[in-house]
Amino acid sequence: MSSPTSAAATQARQAPSYASRGSSHFDLILTLMCVVIIISNIGASKGVVLGPVFGDFSIITDGGFFLFPLAYILGDVISEVYGFKAARRAIYMGFSMAAFAVLSFAVIIALPGFDDAYGVEKQAALEAALGPVWQIVAASLLGFLAGQLLNAMVLTRMKARFKERALVGRLMASTGVGEFADTLIFCAIAAPVIGITDGGQFVNYVIFGFLYKTAVEFLFVPVTSAVIKAIKKREPSYGPRETEAA
């Protein structure tokens, strides 16, 4: 019969490893994630047409397309290094900060401005650029919430099984699940806001958004893996934390 000490050691070896979120590294990653989400939401209020790529076919997307995948890469880093609870907190914080930005934009637009020609022109520009952002943010937040939670859940549950092994496979699997849910929810709400009105454009928007964001994350998997490994080495608290695997 094994002793209590050896049983505890075996359990610790079997538990997935995570670092404490009370860390300066976590704070920096969380801050960057919130900034990326807010800027992406502003950029997403602009419809973008790329092409024609071949023949008459053009790619339909939005102005935040090049930046938003970074939010998922940062989410992967948090989930892998700090665990599901930390990832959930980061997701809720990003959600809250984006909502706060929308309220701030509404106040800025509502404040009385100068009534000269330049002031009226600036007011119109603000209303056109930031006015629809609340709808974009609603789409982004709902998609982001569902996608990131699924992403973090898949990544951490796979880590509970594989521990430190198969990091690349875990990143790719969680990305595919999370990005599909995020893209479908976001596009369904945001499409009318940016001027997409027919089924063909909507399908184009969804497919390109999913394939593009997933491809970007897959392309950056070596970088994400390297960042994750570097942070793990620099986190003194990184070690088995059974409760984080739930």
Automatic annotation (TrEMBL):
The record ties this protein, via InterPro entries, to:
YhhQ (IPR003744)
Q: What is its main location?
A: membrane
Report the subcellular localization. Answer: Cell membrane
Q: How does it sit in the membrane?
A: Multi-pass membrane protein
Stretches that traverse the bilayer: 26-45, 57-78, 90-114, 134-155, 176-196, 202-228
Q: Does the keyword Disulfide bond apply?
A: no
Question: Can you tell me which family this protein belongs to?
Answer: Belongs to the vitamin uptake transporter (VUT/ECF) (TC 2.A.88) family. Q precursor transporter subfamily.
Protein name, as recorded: Probable queuosine precursor transporter
